[in-house]
Design brief:
The structure holds 3 protein chains of 3 kinds. By secondary structure, chain B is mainly beta. Chain B has 2 helices and 4 strands; from the N terminus they run βαββαβ. In chain C, helix 1 runs parallel beside helix 6 and helix 9 crosses helix 12. Classes of the chains: A alpha/beta, B mainly beta, C alpha/beta.
C-alpha cells in the first residue's frame, strides 16, 4: 500500500473557486435551527461527492436524515445501530473488495464513509472503531463531535469538555458540571498508525472539505474529527454556530491539524490566541464557571497546545532545525 | 383520513428500504421559521457565496437568473440566522414575515 | 456424486462454506466455534476460497460487519457460540429486519454463569425471536448439508432472510465423522451466485435502516413476520431439490418409529441420535415409544409437527435450556401453547437434560419414559424436571 503522502502528491485542492456543487446530502432534513453538525455533514458529503457509500451510527444525523419515507441521502446509505458504524463500514468495504476482485461488480471508485457522533465514536463505538482502524480497511470515519448525547437530550459523553453543563453533568454545590477532561479522540485514532487523521471545524469550510477529500483519497483507514456546534445542547443562539466553531480554534481549545503517515501538521498556527473565556462565553453551558475554573481550563488548553507543538516538531525534523 | 401517509405493509420495499434518493426534498422545513426571514441586499452582496456554503439547510442555491448571486428558498430556510451573522458585508438582514408569506417558492416538485 | 471422507465436523462446516463460495467471512473466535473459522482462515490464506476474511474484534462487530457485507451484495458467513451469540443479540434482529441473507453456524454452547464451554441450547433458545430461519443438525453430514441448504434458502428472492444452522458444540463440532463431501460442480448447480435484489449500489442508491416512525413501524414488523412465515415453502422446496441433487433428504419434522406409539420423545440436535438408539432398544423391549425430531425450528412447522404426533397419547419434550420463572423449558413452553391453540391434548412431560455438557445416556431416556408413563397414569404433572441433577 502506498503512503498517504504519496497518494496526496498530486492532490487537487478545493478552493473557493471550485467548491463542489453537488449535494449528496439533501435538503429537507430535520436538524435543529443552526445545527453545526448537519452543516459539517453537508460539507463532508460535498467533498466526497456522489460516489459515496454512507454508513451512519444511530444519533442526531441518522434520525434527522431518515424518518421513513423521507431520506436526505442521495447516495447509498445504511444505518444499523449505535456502536457499530465502523464495523458496518468495514463489512461494506470487505464486500466490495471481494466482489470487485471476483468480477461481480465493477470498480466504480466509490468511497465508504462512516459517520458517528462523539458518543458513537468515543464511548459506545470506540471498540468497533479501533478494530476497523487496526484492520486497515479502506474507509473514512467521520466523527461529528457535538460534545454530548444530544439526540437523547444532552447527556454527557467522554467527549464533553471540562466544566460543561449537561443533563447528566449538572453543576451544583458539589459539581462544576463535567468533571473530566475531554477525551482526545483524534490522538487515539492517530495512535493506530493509520495513514491519515485530521481535525476540522465548519468555520473553515474549505479546510474541512480538503481534509475530507484527502481522507477519502489516501488508501486505508482515515479519521476526521469535526467540531460540530449544537445550539440546542450548548445553550446558544442558532446564529452563532459558526462563530463558536471559529472561536474554539482561535482560543486553541480545538486545534486544527493533520497527521499524515504519523507526521503532525498544524493547519492553523494560532500565534495570538483569544482567551478561552471568550470562547466559553459564547455558550450558556459554561456560564456557571468561575474564575478558578476558567483559569484551570486555560492552563490545560495551554499545556495541550504545547504538547501538540512538540509533536509537530518531533515529527517534522527538518522544520525543527 | 386517519391513515393518511401510511403505507400498506405489502407495499413496503424489502427491509423497509427507501429507493427514492433524497426524498426529504419534499419535506417543508420552512414552516419552522418564526415571523422573520433573511433577505439579501444585492447592492451590498459581493457574490462570495458564503451564505450558500455555510447554510445548514441548503436554503441558498446559485441563482440561475442572476450570475454569481444566490437565491434564498423559503421552503427550506428554518430561520437560524447564520447567513446574517456570517455575511462579510452585512448584506443579509432580517425582514418581518407574515405567516401566509412564509413558504417562498415551492420546491421539490 | 461426491466422495466419502472422514472429517471433523467443524472442518466439514468450513468446507461447506467454501463449496458455497462465500465472499466475506467476518468472525471472532469463541470455543467451540473456533475450528470452523480457523479452517476458513486457512482456506482463504491457501487460496482455496476467494473471500475476504475479516478478523473482527468482537461478535458484535462480526454481525455488524456481516450486515454491511450482505447489504453491499456479498454472500456472507459467520459463526459463533454462547456469549458470542448473546453479544450479537442486538444486531440479529436488525439483520432479519433489513432482510439480509447472512448464514451463521452456531456451535451451541451454554451461557454463563457459571462459565461453561460445553454444550447445551441456552444460547440459541435466547434468540428464538430474532426473525431468522433456524435449523438443527444431528450429525456431521447434516451440518454439511444444512449449510449448503442455508445459503440456498436465505438467498431465495422469496425469502431474503438470514439463516442459522445449529450444531451441538463439541458433541458435533469436534468429532470426526464419515460423510459424503459433495463435488464443487454439484454445489454450483444447486446454488447459483448470489444476486441481491437490492444493495448499496452507487448507481441506484437506497436508504436502508431508516427511522421507523409510528406510521410505519407496525407495517414493517408485519412484513418481517410474514416473511419468516412465508419462507416455509422455499425451505421445503430446497430440501426436495437437495434430495434430487445430492440424494439425501430432509424434512422440517422427522419421525422415528412413531407408528402406533403411545409415547413420543421430542428432541432437537445431536441428542436425537442417542434418543433414536434408546427408542430402538425400548421398542425391542416391547415399549410403545417413538420419536420426532425438530429439524426446522423457525419458522416452526406447525402442521408437520401435528401430523407427526397424531395419535400419540404422551409427549416427552426434551429441553436443553431453561425458561426461569415459568417452570417449563423453552421448547415445552412453545409446544404446549401450540397444542392448546390447536385443540390437541396429549399428556406433555417436560424434562431438562444435557445442560452445560452433562451427558444424556440411553438409560436416561428409559428412565424418562418410565416417569412419563407413570405420571400420565397418575395424572401428575412433569415439567422442567432436571435429569440427573444431584440433589
Amino acid at each position: 500500500m502506498i503512503s498517504a503522502a504519496e497518494a496526496l502528491k498530486d492532490f487537487q485542492k478545493i478552493t473557493p473557486k471550485n467548491i463542489p456543487l453537488v449535494e449528496p446530502f439533501s435538503k429537507g432534513h430535520r436538524a435543529c435551527q443552526g445545527c453545526g453538525e448537519v452543516l459539517a455533514l453537508r460539507l463532508v458529503a460535498k467533498a466526497v461527492g456522489m460516489d459515496m457509500i454512507a454508513v451512519s451510527a444511530t444519533g442526531c444525523m441518522e434520525i434527522i436524515s431518515s424518518p421513513y419515507p423521507q431520506t436526505a441521502w442521495e447516495v447509498p446509505w445504511i444505518h444499523v445501530a449505535f456502536e457499530n458504524a465502523a464495523a458496518v463500514a468495514s463489512g461494506v468495504e470487505a464486500s466490495r473488495k471481494a466482489l470487485i476482485r471476483k468480477g461481480r461488480i465493477k470498480d466504480d471508485g466509490a468511497k465508504v464513509v462512516a459517520f458517528a457522533g462523539d458518543g458513537g465514536t468515543a464511548d459506545i463505538g470506540i471498540q468497533a472503531l479501533s478494530g476497523a482502524l487496526e484492520r486497515g480497511h479502506d474507509f473514512t470515519y467521520v466523527c461529528l463531535d457535538n460534545e454530548a448525547y444530544m439526540n437523547t437530550g444532552i447527556q454527557r459523553s467522554s467527549s464533553t469538555p471540562y466544566g460543561a453543563m449537561t443533563t447528566t453533568s449538572p453543576p451544583g454545590p458539589k459539581s462544576r458540571g463535567q468533571m473530566t477532561w475531554k477525551k482526545n479522540m483524534p490522538m487515539i485514532a492517530a495512535a493506530h498508525n493509520i495513514p491519515y487523521v485530521a481535525t476540522a471545524s465548519p468555520a473553515w469550510h474549505i479546510d474541512l472539505m480538503n481534509k475530507v477529500k484527502k481522507a477519502v483519497t489516501v488508501p486505508g483507514p482515515a479519521y476526521v474529527h469535526i467540531y460540530s456546534p449544537c445550539p440546542t445542547g450548548w445553550r446558544c443562539g442558532p446564529e452563532v454556530s459558526i462563530e463558536t466553531a471559529r472561536k474554539v480554534v482561535q482560543s486553541r481549545v480545538f486545534p486544527l491539524y493533520e497527521v499524515i503517515d504519523g507526521r503532525f501538521v498544524l493547519s492553523r498556527d494560532i500565534k495570538k490566541p483569544i482567551p478561552v473565556k471568550e470562547y466559553l462565553d459564547t455558550q450558556r453551558r459554561f456560564r456557571h464557571l468561575g474564575e478558578k475554573d476558567i483559569a484551570y481550563i486555560q492552563k490545560r488548553v495551554d499545556d495541550d497546545w504545547a504538547r501538540l507543538l512538540s509533536l509537530v516538531q518531533a515529527t517534522n525534523p527538518v522544520a525543527a532545525e | 383520513m386517519a391513515d393518511e401517509g401510511m403505507t400498506p405493509w405489502k407495499d413496503l420495499a424489502l427491509g423497509c428500504a427507501m429507493s427514492e434518493p433524497g426524498s426529504s426534498r419534499r419535506f417543508n422545513t420552512g414552516d419552522w421559521r418564526s415571523r422573520r426571514r433573511p433577505i439579501t441586499d444585492r447592492e451590498k452582496c459581493i457574490k462570495c457565496g458564503l451564505c450558500w456554503i455555510i447554510c445548514p439547510d441548503m436554503a441558498y442555491t446559485p441563482d440561475p437568473e442572476a450570475e454569481g448571486y444566490y437565491k434564498w428558498d423559503g421552503y427550506y430556510c428554518k430561520g437560524c440566522g447564520i447567513c446574517i451573522e456570517e455575511c462579510p458585508k452585512d448584506a443579509i438582514s432580517w425582514q418581518e414575515e407574515k405567516e401566509e408569506d412564509k413558504y417562498g417558492p415551492a420546491c421539490g416538485s | 456424486m461426491g466422495r466419502r471422507v472422514g472429517l471433523e465436523v467443524s472442518l466439514a462446516c468450513a468446507e461447506a462454506v467454501k463449496l458455497c463460495n462465500a465472499d466475506v467471512i467476518a468472525a471472532y473466535p469463541i470455543t467451540p466455534q473456533t475450528h470452523i473459522v480457523e479452517h476458513l482462515a486457512e482456506l482463504v490464506a491457501e487460496g482455496h476460497l476467494d473471500a475476504e476474511f475479516v478478523p473482527v474484534e468482537s461478535e458484535h462487530s462480526a454481525m455488524s460487519a456481516c450486515v454491511g457485507s450482505a447489504a453491499a451484495g456479498a454472500r456472507t458467513f459467520t459463526s459463533t457460540s454462547s456469549q458470542g451469540l448473546a453479544l450479537m443479540h442486538e444486531i440479529l434482529f436488525i439483520t432479519s429486519s433489513l432482510r439480509l441473507p447472512i448464514v451463521m453456524a452456531v456451535a451451541n454452547r451454554s451461557l454463563s454463569a457459571p462459565i461453561s464451554i460445553w454444550n447445551d441450547h441456552s444460547d440459541i433458545m435466547a434468540e428464538r425471536d430474532i426473525g431468522w430461519v433456524q435449523t438443527f443438525a444431528e450429525n456431521g453430514q447434516e451440518v454439511l448439508d444444512l449449510m449448503i441448504h442455508a445459503f440456498k434458502v436465505g438467498e431465495d428472492p422469496r425469502v431474503n432472510l438470514p439463516v442459522a444452522v445449529n450444531m451441538d458444540g463439541f458433541i458435533l463440532t469436534h468429532v470426526i465423522e464419515p460423510m459424503v463431501m459433495p463435488d464443487q460442480a454439484e454445489v454450483d448447480a444447486y446454488l447459483p451466485p448470489y444476486k441481491p435484489s437490492q444493495w448499496l449500489n452507487p448507481a441506484q442508491p437506497i436508504s436502508l435502516g431508516m427511522v421507523g416512525v409510528p406510521e410505519v413501524y407496525t407495517e414493517a414488523k408485519k412484513a418481517n413476520l410474514v416473511a419468516l412465515e412465508d419462507s416455509y415453502p422455499a425451505i421445503v422446496e430446497h430440501w426436495e431439490g437437495f434430495a434430487k441433487a445430492f440424494g439425501r433428504s430432509y424434512q422440517p419434522i422427522e419421525s422415528h418409529r412413531t407408528d402406533g406409539a403411545d409415547t413420543l420423545f421430542v428432541t432437537m440436535g445431536s441428542l436425537g441420535e442417542t434418543c433414536m438408539s434408546a427408542v430402538d432398544q425400548m421398542r425391542e423391549d416391547g415399549r410403545s415409544v417413538g420419536q420426532v425430531r425438530i429439524r426446522l425450528w423457525r419458522p416452526f412447522p406447525v402442521d408437520d409437527f401435528l401430523a407427526a404426533i397424531k395419535g400419540a397419547k404422551n409427549l416427552i419434550v426434551l429441553d436443553r435450556a431453561l425458561c426461569p420463572g415459568i417452570l417449563a423449558g423453552p421448547v415445552a413452553t412453545e409446544l404446549r401453547a401450540l397444542l392448546y391453540a390447536k385443540g390437541v391434548r396429549p399428556f406433555v412431560a417436560n424434562f431438562v437434560a444435557g445442560l452445560g455438557g452433562r451427558d444424556v445416556t440411553r438409560t436416561d431416556f428409559v428412565a424418562m419414559l418410565d416417569k412419563a408413563e407413570q405420571a400420565a397414569a397418575d395424572g401428575q404433572e412433569i415439567t422442567c424436571q432436571m435429569v440427573g441433577v444431584k440433589e
